[in-house]
Design goal:
- This protein is 29% helix and 17% strand.
- With 419 residues, it is of the alpha/beta class.
- A ten-stranded mixed sheet has the order 3-4-5-6-9-10-11-12-13-14. The chain has a two-stranded parallel sheet with strand order 1-2.
- The longest helix has 15 residues, at 223-237.
- The protein starts with 13 loop residues before the first strand and ends in a 5-residue tail after the last helix.
- Bound molecules: S-adenosyl-L-homocysteine and iron/sulfur cluster.
- Iron/sulfur cluster (SF4) binds at residues 145, 147-149, 152, 154-155, 217-218, 249, 390.
């Protein structure tokens, strides 16, 4: 991210979204403005989620013009297409300023992934008749992914590029704006952020937004931008870190860096196998970092009150779903404040795995629970529109040839949206 104001750069617009308060303070100083103007701009970008400079009425119009003529735009990513699942999940194709696209998913009643981790979101998951509406946004961190897990559709894209902090946080602001979510009282201000005077979305009940960084890409291979996005989302947008979970395929040095962050989401590690042999056959990255190294690194994270580490485990029929595997998982996680999220593998075209039998899933879960390990089966969300775990592959992108098998009826029904 660029931090120095450069008045000469007139032709390539620079996004304000993604800039921190110190970045904005430098920018304002370059325009001979006082620091409070930077604070106002920061609030407008993140708290109020204003999408065009013209709408930032708290800044005088000549200042807005100077910012624009210095080459800056807000740069909120655009939702260019959407598909809605029968279960209410919505999958968006989100376009960046350079035309690259990623997918972002909106899950109106959460994704079940928070159960048992001790967080506020977990208690809400378990509440039978919640007095509020809660939603989870699944956010992408890279265009494609370099990790090449054999069971994952995103892996087929390869890696195109990292997203910037603004593009990661911008997916959230774009989706919140689309649903008119008001986080006004999330930090106890009691004030409306978007001028409606209420703290509500949809049917008027309060909004609780959870974020899972589990979309396209490996967040820990884009660590600096990802963590900067987290800070902007916490300090700017106003979503508490206790409502955020990042999933990693296991990048050991990044897990160790993560352990010493002051502001950080909860961690989910994609374990996916109970020994290195099986894991290497489905996740080649295991050649670089063995399971024991990853678990050791996870153990260095100082867990906060009511924080559990999640181990995700994609069940692949006949590969990693046998009782012996469940027993090996228990041995690996012995003594950790951990829980396991079992994910039944979601099929994708051209991926030669099979789903585990319902009996294998039930028995795997039973073995873990019987040994005292909290274990949940993640509800698949939006499978019919290719929005479930591991199914994000920019299936709406016209820059690629559209495989008819990937285009769902729901998608065709909703079609192209204007940005
Ligand atoms: N790259 C990160 C986060 C995105 S993937 C990671 O791998 O952790 C989010 C989760 O989806 C991971 O736990 C991954 O193992 C799982 N996943 C990938 N492909 C899947 C598929 N086809 N079916 C079910 N889960 C899948
Ligand atoms: Fe990348 Fe995660 Fe898919 Fe593996 S599972 S290829 S790390 S997105």
């Amino acid at each position: 991210m660029e931090t120095n104001f450069n008045p000469a750069r007139l032709n390539a617009p620079e996004s304000l979204l993604g800039m921190s308060l110190p970045d904005l303070t430098t920018l304002m100083a370059g325009l001979a403005q006082k620091p409070y103007r930077a604070r106002q701009l920061f609030e407008a970008l993140y708290r109020q989620r204003i999408a065009t400079l013209d709408e930032i009425s708290v800044l005088p119009s000549d200042l807005r013009r100077s910012i624009a003529s210095a080459g800056y735009i807000i740069g909120t990513p655009q939702i260019v297409q959407a598909a809605r699942s029968i279960d209410g999940t919505e999958r968006y194709l989100v376009q960046m300023a350079d035309g690259e696209t990623v997918e972002t998913v909106w899950m109106p009643d959460g994704d079940g992934g928070e159960r048992g981790d001790g967080s506020p979101a977990a208690f809400e998951e378990e509440e039978s008749t919640p007095s509020f509406r809660r939603s989870t946004i699944c956010v992408s961190s890279q265009v494609g992914c370099a990790v090449n897990c054999h069971f994952c559709l995103t892996a087929r894209l390869g890696i195109r590029r990292n997203l910037t902090a603004g593009e990661i946080a911008g997916q959230v602001t774009a989706v919140l704006n689309r649903h008119n979510v008001n986080l006004g009282s999330a930090r106890g201000t009691g004030k409306s952020a978007r001028g409606t005077g209420t703290t509500a979305h949809r049917n008027g009940s309060p909004a609780r937004i959870n974020l899972v960084f589990m979309g396209m890409g490996e967040p820990f291979l884009n660590y600096a931008a990802f963590m900067e996005a987290v800070r902007l989302l916490v300090e700017g947008v106003g979503i508490p870190e206790s409502r955020m979970t990042v999933s990693t395929s296991g990048i050991e040095p990044a897990i160790r860096a993560f352990a010493s962050e002051t502001i950080r989401p909860k961690l989910a590690l994609s374990l996916n196998a109970s020994n290195d042999l099986v894991r290497e056959s489905i996740m080649p990255i295991t050649r670089k970092w063995k399971i024991a190294q990853l678990v050791e690194a996870v153990r260095t994270i100082p867990l906060r009150t009511r924080e559990w580490v999640t181990f995700e485990y994609v069940l692949l029929g006949g590969i990693n779903d046998q009782p012996v595997h469940a027993r090996e998982v228990l041995a690996l996680l012995n003594g950790m404040r951990a829980k396991v999220n079992l994910i039944v593998w979601n099929p994708g075209p051209g991926i030669a795995y099979t789903q585990p039998s319902p009996e294998a899933v039930a028995s795997f879960q039973k073995t873990l629970i019987a040994a005292g390990m909290p274990t949940y089966i993640r509800r698949p969300r939006g499978r019919d529109i290719y929005a479930a775990c591991g199914q994000l592959k920019r299936t709406l992108d016209h820059s690629q040839s559209l495989a008819p098998s990937l285009v769902s009826p729901a998608l065709i029904a909703i079609g192209t949206l204007s940005a």
